[in-house]
Amino acid sequence: MPDAPLVAVLGHGICSDEPVLHADDLGLTRGDGCFEATRIQVDGAGTHVDHLEAHLARFRRSAASLEIDVDDAAWRALLDEVIAAWQQPGEAILRWMLTRGRERGGGPSGVVTVTPLDERTLRARDGIAVVLLDRGHPADAFVERPWLLGGVKTLSYAVNVAAGREAARRGADDAIFVSTDGVVLEAPRAAVVWRFGERLGTTPTDGTGVLASITCDVALAAARSDGVGVDVELRPVDDLFGSDGVWLVSSGRLVAPVTTIDGRSIATDDAWTDRMRSFTTRR
């Protein structure tokens, strides 16, 4: 089966048909855990994992916010085993998940999977239609409220997935969350980057609840090194309609140019999209 995922369990290694979690695992019953995901590519030059160290650092930060212990050596060994075992040519997503473990105790649980990128994800690189969805809170809702877990990549993704379903109901491919005071936040599973002239911009993470996107950070750092101005600012959502380009940036899609917002066409630029792609894959 060429598209079968690879699965591995912390403390056990790569599995075939063995169970990987207990039914009372708090990651299943309460979404109490965190995860990371990045692109893995196998080609004639070998196997490459995008920005693994940065993703591991964010994983540790998420776990610390949840007060779940991370065994760095065990995770590194398991990820190395999985990366070495994955030999399928092409692009895939390497994902690792940490839960608090079973309700009765016994320590955290961990699972790693590798799954080939699906056609929908790959098609998004050619352009996507998005809708605006109210996130239900102001842009500063997470200031001095660490219990809201702003910027933590938790397993509790039901709202994000529901937003994707709502976008589909409205005839769009994805959504952009907007605060109640009209500020651009993020997409359900991507950062938002915009362009005005020769400057790129994105939303700050401090206090907004926006996840610190590794792919976005890499892209904007590469842009700065090429002399492109970068603004990290609270931007009114209406400004997007007058921008010179908007992209959703994430580990799987890399760069997805936005072609319409709420059915209204916005500016696109193939040359800048190619440039953005080069920024996201800078090594």
From TrEMBL:
InterPro entries: Aminotrans_IV, Aminotransferase-like, BCAT-like_C, BCAT-like_N, Class-IV_PLP-Dep_Aminotrnsfr. Keywords: Lyase. GO terms for biological process: carboxylic acid biosynthetic process. Gene3D superfamilies: 3.30.470.10, D-amino Acid Aminotransferase, subunit A, domain 2. The keyword Ribonucleoprotein does not apply. Pfam families: Aminotran_4. The keyword Lyase applies. One of its GO terms (molecular function) is lyase activity. One of its GO terms (cellular component) is cytosol. PANTHER family: AMINO-ACID AMINOTRANSFERASE, AMINODEOXYCHORISMATE LYASE. NCBIfam families: PRK07849.1-3. Belongs to the class-IV pyridoxal-phosphate-dependent aminotransferase family. This is 4-amino-4-deoxychorismate lyase. It comes from Ilumatobacter fluminis.
